[in-house]
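Practice set, problem 2.
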Amino acid sequence: MFSIYILTYNEEIDIADCIESAMLSDDIIILDSFSSDRTIEIAESYPVRIVQHKFESHGRQRTWMLEEVPAKYEWVYILEADERMTPELFNECLKKIESQEYIGYYVAERVIFLGTWIRNSTQYPRYQMRLFRKDKVWFSDYGHTEREVCDGPTSFLGESYPHYTCSKGISRWIEKHNRYSTDEAAETLIQLETGSVSWKNLFFGDSEVERRRALKDFSLRLPFRPIVRFIYMYIFLRGFLDGQAGLAWCTLQAFYEYLILMKVWEIKNMHIPSFTSDTDSSSSKLEIEA
């Protein structure tokens, strides 16, 4: 068996379905960033453990969780509230953890947008580190998200998980990506000043993960990035085959890219002070047994 962590913040719309999909495991831990909606109230109606911790960043939150929140089993799986575990994926995970050959496994996500699987323009299969030995993986920050650091060999699962990326509505999606674009703008400047493109990984990377990350480093250096991204996703990746939802997805991704560029310009030229409060590194942990 393996434990399942679920990361939450104001997830009252998704949390019940997410927990129910994960109940194939007998050890489910909710890590909540002090939600202000009914997330905790709903979660308490299920046989799960609930831990609350002030959010700092995606990488720090995951690493704190792995270091400070004990799990029942050696192997753990990370779910976000708008993702689901499936019986097929769960059974494959059970088979894989019987072997000690690898310390972690990447799992492909199926982006569900406007009720449609966006298979083409999301570069499916696009993999994320999800199943791993708790003592062998931690996370660092990169842009608005995180990247895993693995102490040992990793592999890939054949099954995938659904990711309902717009389950809370388009307004919430735009609000979220407005925040994300601020972090991505700062990361863009760092990469342009100190980073480089791995041409070997871009063309000959051993995995989709290596090739995708090299492609991102390359794309940061392209002119007209929003236009290039739309053409790449809608034409070259055949996003048009995803129908109306595919067109909307590609348009929103181009808009997101444009937001990042505008905030890069803003950082360079306007010197707007940050109104983000300092993070309290000694923030307390609250655990609730449901």
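Problem 2, part (b): a different protein.
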Amino acid sequence: MVQKRRELLSKPDAPSPSRGRRGRPRAYQPEVALGKALDLFRRDGFAATSLDDLSAATGMNRPSLYGAFGDKRELYIKSYQRYRDDARAAMIDVFRIEMPIRKRLERIYSIALDIYLSGEAGPRGCFTVMTAASEAVGDPQIRAMVLEGFFELDKAFARCFRLASEKGELPASTDPAVLAQIASATMHSMAIRARARVPRKELEAMAKGAIDVMCGEKG
């Protein structure tokens, strides 16, 4: 009996079921959770969205949220960047593919309305215009992101008008930079009106009127 007891004590411990693991697997999908946070911030803004709201929407407790995304401000910034990336991906082809300027603007505004009017609880408008612009007042990093977005959009529109002028679709005296700002301002105004639940038909009519001003009314 003594010998057997010594043998048992001398045997190495059986491996624990948890030994050898590098850590618990994540019980959430970061991109899905970020999308849920984006929806919430886009709907309610930064100040009105609490950590409890974010926890409920993502299915993650506060420590998990902090570990994955940082504090509330960092999560907001990551959500805004995700929105910008998604919007850029939706728009990139229509800005690059060769087509008449009028048709290009019609398609750009149509895609923008698809984005602005989306949302299960109603139209959400544009993240930049509806919430980020407000946070930009007191946050230098968010302000830099907003201004960068404005610059990128103006630059993309200016390229379109420049090409149209070179192809003879617009007068040689056209100022691409000025038209670009008008085109961007039209998009921002549509976003605000969309959030206020102005019907799509009215927003499309607004876009057509702006296109007529920028490109010359069709005869």
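Answer key, part (b): The CA atoms of residues 36 and 56 lie 10 Å apart. Confidence is low (pLDDT under 50) at residues 1-25.
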